[in-house]
Amino acid sequence: MASTTPRDPYEVLGVARDADEGQIKKAFRRLARELHPDVNRDDPEAEAKFKEAAEAYEILSDPERRATYDRFGHEGLRSGGWTSQAESFGSIGDLFEAFFGGGGLGSMFGGGMGAPRQGADVAAAIEIDLAQAAQGASAEVSYDVVSVCEHCHGNGAEPGTPIVTCERCGGAGQLQSVARSPFGQVVRTAVCDVCGGDGRVPETPCRTCRGRGRTSGARTIAVDVPAGIADGQRIRLAGRGHAGDPGAPDGDLYVLVSVRPDARFVRDGDDLVTVLDVPAPLAALGTTVDVETLDGTEPLEVPAGTQPGETLTLRGRGMPLLRRTGRHGDLRVIVDVVVPRHLTGEQRELLERLSATITDENLRGDESVRAKLRRLLHG
Asked: What are phi and psi of 287, to 5 degrees?
């Protein structure tokens, strides 16, 4: 990072002044991991920060240079003719190669190059209705996927023809070059551009996949949807994604499940919620009505004096609990007391006779005004 006065290298690396060589190296590698462009692309100052860390490491990793700094600071280093080599590199990638022998995170932290790569994951989506979500279902899903070529079984060679050693890399799968830098010799390693790291190539490429060993196309499979699944949940099908490198597993398929809205019920967790219209006279007298459930209709007793917005519950008539056999949520029935309209003369006469007999005792309840407002406004 540009500054007229360089920062203390101990502060840059975050180590104590008595830190040993191992602690200094560990601190620098930690910083390098954080500042590597592969994982830190959103920070425009990452390169400057890494150069600052590299300069700090140059100072503290060399015993003589460190001793000079400890006694005389940056001024002592400059007066002795030392200048940081970090600024002489054209890019942060060159810096990483100088310190770690390659610009990739694998070479930097011990990962081998050319290791078989697992196949990539694939995403797909299906849509089901609430009844299917409750009972479980089998649904077909189609998606595009990269698969092992069936003609050559993935080796890239026309059946019956040999696979030979790659002449470009001599079977190593990697190409190496040695260059000199201010830090000494730098060995650069790259995957062979002919064999792709395999070390072998088909003498006669497969006519179906053209030597790639892979083909792409549509695949349709049946997906078992478990009972109780909710809208927005995913089903993972291991090994149904893109094909991996030889010797590596295939990727996975993730199926996003969408549950269509149901005109009868609203889902709330594992419970179902519905509304039941009850005429005001029957709500006052009490009655038994048939309520629709996921498994048909079921009688529900509406107690006398049931008020608008009260909730009656049918235990165990909700959604099955996902992967918990035999357990179900509840069906919550919200009572909507309906005031009759378009009365006949006889009905009006009966209601007038009833209203004349209503007293405060008939209207009195145990709820406070606050509780009534909460029930009426929020249910």
From this structure: -165, 175
Say if residue 156's pLDDT is above 60: yes
The CA-CA-CA angle for residues 276, 278, 281, to 5°, reads 165
DSSP state of 315: T
Q: Are strands 122-128 and 253-259 parallel, antiparallel or unpaired?
A: parallel
Residue from 62, 51, 36 nearest 6 by CA: 51
Q: Which two tokens stand for residue 111?
A: 């990962």
pLDDT digits (tens, 9 = 90+) for 177-190: 766 554 555 667 77
Report how far apart, in Å, the C-alpha atoms of 39 and of each of 27, 32, 42, 51 are.
18, 10, 9, 16
Q: Decide if 240 contacts 146 (C-beta within 8 A).
A: no
d(CA 32, CA 310): 63
The two structure tokens encoding residue 253: 């398929």
Place of tokens 């007066």: 79
Strand order through the sheet with 234-237: 122-128, 253-259, 234-237
Query: What is the tens place of the pLDDT at every residue in 285-307?
Result: 999 999 999 989 999 999 999 99
